[in-house]
Amino acid sequence: MTETIQLGDISILMTRKDIKNVHLSVHPPTGRVTLAAPVATRLEVARAYAISKLGWIRAQQSNLLAQARETPRKFVERESHILWGRRYLLSVHYEDHRPFVSLDHKRITLTVRPSADAQQRAEVIHEWHKRLLHEAVPALIKKWESRLGVRVDRYFLQRMKTKWGSCNNKARHIRLNTELVKKPKDLLEYVIVHEMVHLIEPTHSDRFVAILTEHYPTWREARAELNELPLAAVAWSE
Q1: What sign results for the dihedral spanned by CA atoms 40, 44, 46, 52?
Q2: pLDDT tens over the chain, length 238 residues
Q3: R_g of the chain computed on alpha carbons
């Protein structure tokens, strides 16, 4: 069951869950606000908490609206693309064989059939992005499994509109946003560690923060850098 807390022009969607602490979140791209509260929390108590955080909510919404956003990519010659935090120029070749992508120190070369439209060119690049992530992710998971004393049974890559990652604690699965291929690799590692800590502590509790801080003390700086980088040029819907 959900309820709405209205604070002037701000609507907050409240849900009650089996958690110990209140969690307030402001979601991209428009600054939608949600509040998760322990099951026994009275509506007036949740409302008072939200009022106490009103300044923080407005600041987060302002940051989201001001955040840089990529212009839509057309996947054409000499277009700029980001990979692992670096900018590359795209070179497009049209040849009548199976599509592929190659990379050198300053250029991404996309080779597609002459009939390939922008959507098809985009999908070839997206599949290449996933292959690059599949090359990088397993080693990072293995590294942090030993450090955290946990096991990830499976990981998944997918387009995600509002999260960089997620964790299914019971199944021991983690999901990662394919947009992470555009960010510096240390930020990919931060997201992986964040999600793997959820295998120990499912919620963003004080215990979760303590564990994350112990093992990845610069997580706040990593989170800030990740959130300051340009958002993907996607058609958001909420």
Answers
A1: negative
A2: 789 999 999 999 999 988 888 989 887 667 889 999 999 999 999 999 999 999 999 988 887 776 656 677 899 999 999 999 999 999 999 999 999 999 998 899 999 999 999 999 999 999 999 999 999 999 999 999 999 999 999 999 998 877 899 999 999 999 999 999 999 999 999 999 999 999 999 988 899 999 999 999 999 899 888 877 665 544 333 3
A3: 20
In terms of Cβ atoms closer than 10 Å to its own Cβ (0-12, 13-18, 19+), residue 216 is: buried
What pTM value is reported for the model?
0.72
- Give the closest residue to 75 by CA, choosing from 26, 27, 127, 28: 127
Q: Can you read off the two tokens belonging to residue 63?
A: 């940051």
- Among 189, 90, 79, 180, smallest CA distance to 129 is for 180
Structure tokens at 7: 């604070």
β-bridge pairing 10-17 and 32-38: parallel
Residue-wise burial string across 89-128, b where 16 or more C-beta atoms lie within 10 A, e elsewhere:
ebebeeeeeebebeeeeeebebbbeeebeeeebbebbeeb
CB count in 10 Å sphere of residue 225: 16
